[in-house]
Design brief:
alpha/beta, Rossmann fold, binds 5-amino-5-deoxy-1-O-phosphono-D-mannitol, single chain, about 35% helix, about 600 residues, about 25% strand, six-stranded antiparallel sheet, 3 domains, eight-stranded antiparallel sheet, Glutamine Phosphoribosylpyrophosphate, subunit 1, domain 1
Length: about 600
């Protein structure tokens, strides 16, 4: 989380830093701050809240060509101006911005306090300027190198010295940093998004690398001081400043983009005539596919839910054992990595620290792991080396919507390949490919007539608790619907497998409690109907997402939300849509900031 930007060049740094911060605000929006070096002193400004709050109070800063900035997602210490970055040393000569967590914070803080340092903030980051000052003997690079030897944890940092207005120093250990090499100017950022306004020539820092950044570029070294011959890469992703295209919020725009984004996830990949598919990024021949004995999908939050749907599809269509796992739990339970298993790391941002940690653990143990990623060139995509880009386009709203459906669509393509070389005949493969090919049109059809979402919102907006239920492929959709409502509307709710309801959560239901039931017509509908009856018998109000024309289910519902008919494995691509709209409109009704819900960030780069 947190966005870091630093600039050195012939132009005024301040407007460039502010522009970079705006581009990275999705990484955290608890506070924002900047520091410039001018006439041997630091000029520092920081504010609680959004970058717009900072710019509103900024006034004109010195017109100098060196400085750094930060948008914060709080880890240590509350949302206060004092805790905002940059942090400076006691002499106010060294400014540091940091993304990550310093794990030996308490020990270092005690040592520095014993040396007489008086801390101003509650942050772990404030350790850094004091520690660098302690090691400073006139050489900024050596001071940073010596200081970070004492630091345990994850960090991406940028350091500015008032006495050295011709150099910035950056170090990466676990939190991404990219250096943009412009003409006579150099930009450092935690995200390529903030670099592209200046240049597309970049160097990605690797863990335990230090960069000495000047107007001429960056000298990259190991922390031991050895020169690193870093590869210069050219950014080729879509880094346009995102526009709402007439929608009031990015979330609504992204919900409505799904016919196109799912089409992009499938385009050029389905081979309908052959009943097959191809994923160029996977480098897997049919023989390789045939040797896959197990599929394990890793991810967090919405990406985990997409991985659940994909794993169910693999078992159901390809008859290969598959499961999804929460990435943040994975590496700490000493997982078994089998040679014939294929792991997929699902991540919209490609920067999620928990998922990246799982990827490293698999690679250390010799396993094969591939990315299912949206952001081109992101850390997970590059670390995996191969995988599937889902091509949903930039997703700006913190609540993931179009990335969810695109991840599922892309992995259904993989499932088709896996199934086709095993147990699917030509005709069966053609039917699966045709079903997938038809999905974007059905999404479009639903979004044109989304049904009585307002009636569902009316039941939900005043509820104390909302239960989302589904069976089979609709169970992960129930989890996803509950997650969306929690993060956007802040209403207590949970997703449950419908059959499990009677083993506990049914106790939560009382007269009028809204229950959202995801029940497209499939092999489990009859069982789902029994569960609906149990819910109704407790006085709960049923909001049913069901297949168009299914009068039996519609007849039980207080609010009926029909979606177009599809096959069971593709149904989540349709049943998720009303749940996204319910979360969005409930959030609006409760006056929430739907694009930037409280306490969250788009990219979760700390564990
Ligand atoms: O970028 P990722 O897909 O790795 O992010 C994982 C989760 O942090 C993310 O899906 C989160 O749950 C979303 N805010 C959900 O809408």
């Amino acid at each position: 989380m947190c966005g870091i930007i630093a600039y050195i060049g012939p132009h005024p740094a301040l407007p460039r830093i502010i522009e970079g911060l705006k581009r990275m605000e999705y990484r955290g929006y608890d506070s924002a701050g900047v520091a410039l070096a001018s006439e041997g002193r630091l000029w520092v400004r920081k504010e609680v809240g959004r970058v717009s709050e900072l710019t509103r109070r900024l006034g004109g800063g010195p017109e100098v060509g060196i400085g750094l900035g930060h948008t914060r997602w709080a880890t240590h210490g509350g949302l206060t101006q004092v805790n905002a970055h940059p942090h400076v040393d006691a002499s106010q000569q060294i400014a540091v911005v940091h993304n990550g967590i310093i794990e030996n914070n308490n020990i270092l803080r005690s040592q520095l306090e014993a040396d007489g340092v008086a801390f101003r903030s509650e942050t772990d980051t404030e350790i850094l300027p004091h520690l660098i000052r302690k090691h400073y003997r006139g050489d900024p690079v050596q001071a940073v190198r010596d200081a970070v030897q004492h630091v345990q944890g994850t960090y991406g940092i940028a350091v500015l010295f008032a006495e050295h207005p011709d150099v910035l120093v950056a170090v990466r250990n676990g939190s991404p940093l990219v250096v943009g090499l412009g003409r006579g100017e150099t930009v450092l950022a935690s995200d390529p998004q903030a670099v592209v306004a200046h240049t597309r020539q970049v160097v990605y820092l690797q863990d335990r690398e230090l960069a000495v950044i000047t107007t001429d570029g960056a000298d990259v070294q190991t922390l031991a001081g050895q020169v690193v011959d870093s590869e210069v890469e050219v950014l080729d992703g879509d880094y346009q400043l995102a526009s709402k295209e007439g929608f009031p919020h990015f979330m609504l725009k992204e919900i409505h983009e799904q016919p196109r984004s799912v089409r992009r996830a499938l385009r050029g990949r389905l081979q309908v005539d052959d009943g097959n598919a191809k994923l160029g990024g996977l480098n897997m021949t049919p023989r390789d596919l045939l040797s896959v004995q197990r599929v394990i999908n890793l991810g967090c939050g919405t990406s985990y839910h997409a991985g659940m749907v994909a794993a169910m599809a693999v078992e159901s269509l390809a008859r290969v054992p598959a499961r999804a796992e929460i990435a943040s739990e994975f590496r700490y339970r000493h997982p078994i990595i089998q040679r014939e298993a294929v792991f997929f790391a699902f991540s919209q941002s490609g920067e999620t620290a928990d998922t990246l940690g799982a990827v490293s653990e698999i690679q250390i143990k010799g396993g094969e792991v591939m990315g299912v990623v949206n952001v081109v060139g992101s850390t997970i995509a590059r670390t995996c080396g191969q995988g599937v880009y889902v091509h949903s386009g930039p997703e700006i709203a913190v609540a993931s919507t179009k990335a969810f459906t695109s991840q599922i669509a892309a992995q259904l393509v993989f499932t088709l390949m896996l199934a086709r070389c095993r147990n699917l005949s030509l005709e069966q493969g053609q039917a699966v490919a045709a079903a997938l090919d038809g999905i974007p049109g059905k999404i479009s059809q639903y979004l044109q007539e989304p049904g009585p979402i307002d009636a569902a919102v009316e039941l939900i907006a005043s509820a104390r608790y909302v239960l989302f239920l589904g069976r089979g492929f609709s169970y992960p959709v129930a989890l996803e619907g509950a997650l969306k409502l929690k993060e956007i509307a802040y209403i207590p709710c949970e997703g449950y497998p419908a059959g499990e309801m009677k083993h506990g959560p049914i106790a939560m239901l009382d007269d009028g409690a809204p229950v959202v039931f995801i029940a497209p017509r499939d092999s489990q509908t009859e069982k789902a109907i029994s569960n609906m009856m149990e819910v109704k018998a407790r006085g709960a109000r049923l909001i049913c997402v069901h297949t168009q024309g299914d009068d039996e289910v519609a007849g039980l519902a207080d609010v009926s939300l029909p979606v177009p008919r599809s096959t069971d494995f593709a149904s989540p691509l349709l049943t998720a849509l009303p749940l996204q709209l319910i979360a969005y409109h409930t959030g609006l009704a409760l006056q929430r900031d739907v694009d930037k819900p409280r306490n969250l960030a788009k990219s979760v780069t700390v564990e």
